Amino acid sequence: MGSLRGKGIAAATVFCLATALSAMAASLGAGQEAAFRVVDADGEPVVGAVLTLTPLDAQPDGPVDAPDGVPVLDQADTAFEPTVVLVRAGGTVRLRNSDPFNHHVYSFSRVKQFDAVMRADGAEKEIVLEEPGVVAVGCNIHDQMRGFIYVIAAPHYRETGAAGDAVFEDLAPGRYVLRPWHPLLRGRPARWEQEVTIDAEGGVKTVAIDLRAGRREGAGRGKERRKY
To answer: What is the pLDDT of residue 31?
Structure first.
């Protein structure tokens, strides 16, 4: 009897230990959530800011954020829609003209130069973006048009919503470089980067940046000129 009882206790101990180790492994394997709020110099939320996270600590290879399908930079109502398109380095952006008249879309940016005559009513052209960085896009026919392609190399990125908030999920715990970007960001993005630690504590981290006043560019030709 004593021998059977001892074996039962030993078996129960092994089972409990295995259960605890399994729970611990699941906990360690579960990614962390990180929330950020981007504000300007006046403490107002910044909409449409892009945040990237690059790990500083060695981490195993894992999934990275990527857009769904091929991002489209449309030309509609004599404006680029959306104003900012996000694409991963090595990815493709599709230019499209939804206006009933021609556009002449171009970029002289260091990251990517291109020149494309976009015929009316649905013309499309795909551009491959090999290098990370900012590609400013304009139209030779309509000077007030301004758009941006932000080419990202960091594994994780988010764009802030109406409240200036962005939430990352499934992050490995550790140290990261957080870099914010916005079309009106004052100075180079590297000036605003900071080191952050992702852990189980949670909470919302505030990221303060300084923006230029919205510029009014181009030969307006009697039309309202757009910011950026």
So the answer is: 80
Residues 159/180, Cβ–Cβ less than 8 Å: no
Spell out the alpha helix ranges (H) of the chain: 2-29
Domain 66-154 in the same topology as domain 32-63+155-220 = yes
Spans of all domains in the chain = 32-63+155-220, 66-154
User: Over the stretch 96-148, which tens digit does the pLDDT of each residue have?
Assistant: 999 999 999 999 999 999 999 999 999 999 999 999 999 999 999 999 999 99
What proportions of the chain, in percent to the nearest 5, are helix, strand and coil? 15, 40, 45
Concatenated DSSP letters for 139-154? Answer: ESS-TT-EEEEEEE-S
Write the class of the CATH domain 66-154: mainly beta
Query: Is there a contact between 186 and 210 (Cβ–Cβ < 8 Å)?
Result: yes
